[in-house]
């Protein structure tokens, strides 16, 4: 015990790291199911080489943990927490290659204190495995390049491939690698090395299942992730909301101190390169190669496109190590103050739900909704259930209910990966259904009064029932409109 107290006393920053992770672990049982949790759990329950929205790594991991520990919301959260903890450990190892012991500890407390680590620890997204394999890729590439350990080219190829099998953003790993070698006078010779190209070839081979799935499905996922977004960006419509929204998101994810330090570092190195035509030493350039393209690249399109808050996350890995080179102890303390305040606010929100969330992106009410629908099905027997909000309601109900819950492809609308589950909707012909529609804004307890226009094309008769009102601690927090639909006909598909 005395040795432990001495360790904590002499390693104050490390004790903060342990404290943050302990806090996150303790809060896991109180976190409800998020729609993303349910959707990617659905991935894992319908194993495939890849999926419509993203590659399948997060789904595979959720399936693995559920097979070992059983199906529960806690196990889903435990999966995210465990993988993110491995990411922190990998980050610590990576940082130690570039920083002194004291600065490595500073970088470690910087990443552990952020809200983005908390989000990854609580919420299942492709970014959870992406950041782990991204970090492992940088470790392997470092050893291959700077320690000239050739076997790590092979490990790097595997890690980069697994990162891509987590999320398409991982292509920036190969981009960053080539960019580093092109700009590095010392290591440019590696562009001619067969080990480099073997590493990239291995990564492509590991990625092959994703390419094969896309080939089998007319490149549906690649088109979904690229064509629509490219079209929106090419329109070049300036929006101050997009730009300042992105800044607000990054301030929240990184907290103000770390975000401003990273902005300062970015400006400093870009200015030095442009004005003085001077590049940093090889190791710093290595970090910048995996930071600038992602961080600055996505930031550069924020005035014309809504950049989601998680898109820049991979850049944080090397960006925070760069921040660890310059940040001082005073700023670390300020970062910790911000972090403690924000995490306490998160705790209060999770435990007491003090601020209503006007969105379906919430952990509140899904289980209660499933219980209410089961009661409705007793009044309206032999009905199937479906919804129309891309995936959220359908995925959550699929998790909680012991029956198949359908999405908007029932009424001929695109339904993301629900379109690829192999459902024969003709089996539902002549059946009745309950259509569930979330009232995101929830301003009153009244009926909708309007019927979804597509429902009339697929059902003989549609009747609106009383809405389902979800209460938490006697407070009305969510509302769902309910429609009883009779005699389904899939022939209109």
Automatic annotation (TrEMBL):
Biological-process GO terms, alphabetical: lipopolysaccharide biosynthetic process
InterPro entries xrefs: LipidA_mod_glycosyltrf_83, RgtA/B/C-like
Subcellular location field: Cell membrane
Domain of life: Bacteria
Membrane topology: Multi-pass membrane protein
GO cellular component: plasma membrane
Segments forming domain Glycosyltransferase RgtA/B/C/D-like: 53-213
Transmembrane feature ranges: 12-34, 74-100, 106-123, 152-183, 195-213, 242-265, 285-305, 311-329, 336-355
Alphabetically ordered keywords of this record: Cell membrane, Glycosyltransferase, Membrane, Transferase, Transmembrane, Transmembrane helix
Coiled coil (UniProt feature): none
Pfam families recorded: PMT_2
GO molecular function: pentosyltransferase activity
Full protein name: Glycosyltransferase RgtA/B/C/D-like domain-containing protein
């Amino acid at each position: 015990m005395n040795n432990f107290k001495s360790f904590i006393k002499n390693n104050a920053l490390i004790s903060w790291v342990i404290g943050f992770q302990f806090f996150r672990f303790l809060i896991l049982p109180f976190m409800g199911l998020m729609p993303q949790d349910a959707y990617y759990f659905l991935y894992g329950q319908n194993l495939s080489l890849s999926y419509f929205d993203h590659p399948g790594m997060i789904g595979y991991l959720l399936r693995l943990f559920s097979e070992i520990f059983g199906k529960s919301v806690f196990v889903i959260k435990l999966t995210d927490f465990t993988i993110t903890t491995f990411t922190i450990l990998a980050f610590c190892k990576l940082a130690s290659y570039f920083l002194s012991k004291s600065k490595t500890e500073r970088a470690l407390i910087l990443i552990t204190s952020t809200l983005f680590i908390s989000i990854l620890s609580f919420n299942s997204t492709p970014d959870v495995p992406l950041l782990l394999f991204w970090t492992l890729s940088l470790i392997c590439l470092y050893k291959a390049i700077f320690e000239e350990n050739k076997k790590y080219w092979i490990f790097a190829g595997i890690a980069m491939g697994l990162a891509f099998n987590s999320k398409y953003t991982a292509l920036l790993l190969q981009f960053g690698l080539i960019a580093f070698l092109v700009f590095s006078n010392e290591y440019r010779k590696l562009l001619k090395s067969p080990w480099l190209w073997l590493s990239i070839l291995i990564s492509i081979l590991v990625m092959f299942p994703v390419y094969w799935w896309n080939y089998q499905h007319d490149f549906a996922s690649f088109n979904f992730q690229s064509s629509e977004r490219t079209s929106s960006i090419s329109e070049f419509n300036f929006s101050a909301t997009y730009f300042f929204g992105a800044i607000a998101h990054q301030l929240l994810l990184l907290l103000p101190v770390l975000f401003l330090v990273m902005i300062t570092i970015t400006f400093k190195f870009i200015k030095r390169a442009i004005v003085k035509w001077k590049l940093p030493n090889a190791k710093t350039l290595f970090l910048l190669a995996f930071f600038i393209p992602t961080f600055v690249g996505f930031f550069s399109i924020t005035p014309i496109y809504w950049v989601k808050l998680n898109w820049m996350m991979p850049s944080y890995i090397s960006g925070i190590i760069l921040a660890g080179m310059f940040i001082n102890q005073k700023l670390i303390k300020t970062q910790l103050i911000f972090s403690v305040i924000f995490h306490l606010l998160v705790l209060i929100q999770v435990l007491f739900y003090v601020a209503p969330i006007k969105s379906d992106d919430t952990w509140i009410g899904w289980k209660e909704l499933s219980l209410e629908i089961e009661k409705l099905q007793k009044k309206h027997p032999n009905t199937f259930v479906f919804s129309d909000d891309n995936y959220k309601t359908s995925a959550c109900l699929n998790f909680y209910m012991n029956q198949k819950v359908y999405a908007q492809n029932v009424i001929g609308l695109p339904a993301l990966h629900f379109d690829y589950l192999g459902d024969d909707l003709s089996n539902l012909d002549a059946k009745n259904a309950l259509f569930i529609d979330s009232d995101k804004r929830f301003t009153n307890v009244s009926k909708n009064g309007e019927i979804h226009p597509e429902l009339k094309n697929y059902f003989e008769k549609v009747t609106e029932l009383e809405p389902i009102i979800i209460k938490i601690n006697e407070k009305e927090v969510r509302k769902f409109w309910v429609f009883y639909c009779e005699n389904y006909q899939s022939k209109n598909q």
